[in-house]
Design brief:
Blueprint lengths: L3 H12 L48 E3 L14 E5 L5 E6 L1
Amino acid sequence: MKPIIPALVAALALSACMFIPVPLPGPAPWQDPAAPRTGMCGAASVQQFVGQPLAVLAFPAGTRIITPGTPVTEDFSDARLNVDVDATGLVTRIWCG
């Protein structure tokens, strides 16, 4: 029974390190008709997320998350939001295509 206690303490300590997504006030930038747009996907309206950890961000359904080594098709869709993420989990680029 005693070996379980250190495991529980370790699990509790690690759970304190989890990221919790923080909702943004107001409409999401890609839903705001007044937001500036580059292409139909609204990438210009979410450029402030570049450099942020992907784990704390929420993008709309259909967003293509591109991590290192992810195969990407070359079909262009101006309505598709693409998010490039580096090996550490930080957003490096947000673009339409």
